[in-house]
Amino acid sequence: MPDAQRPEDLLASLQAEIRVLQDRALKLETFADGLNDKHDTLRSEVRSEIASLRNQIASLETKMETANKQINSKLDRLFGARSVVTAIITLATSILGSGVVHMVVSIGK
């Protein structure tokens, strides 16, 4: 995975690769089922290719899960930062509001 690639882009890329591999595996399975007993060698080669494709699909799905976790982690940090900023603004407003009320009461005396 290149460092410059964003998790969202990686996720979309991996989904496209998985779709292509799944289509290829399905075509091969259909082809293998259509072969008769005379073509045992070809059938075993096709089944081997299908197994390889299934392994590639599983690997890509694992990479997708990793990318999803990275995206979710970034979102969690973003929402956490927003909560902290909101709390600071609320605290500052409260302190300033109390100070203004105190100053008005003090001037009014």
From TrEMBL:
Residues 43-77 form a coiled coil. It comes from the Bacteria. The chain crosses the membrane at residues 84-105. Keywords: Coiled coil, Membrane, Transmembrane, Transmembrane helix. This is DUF1640 domain-containing protein. It comes from Gluconobacter frateurii NRIC 0228.
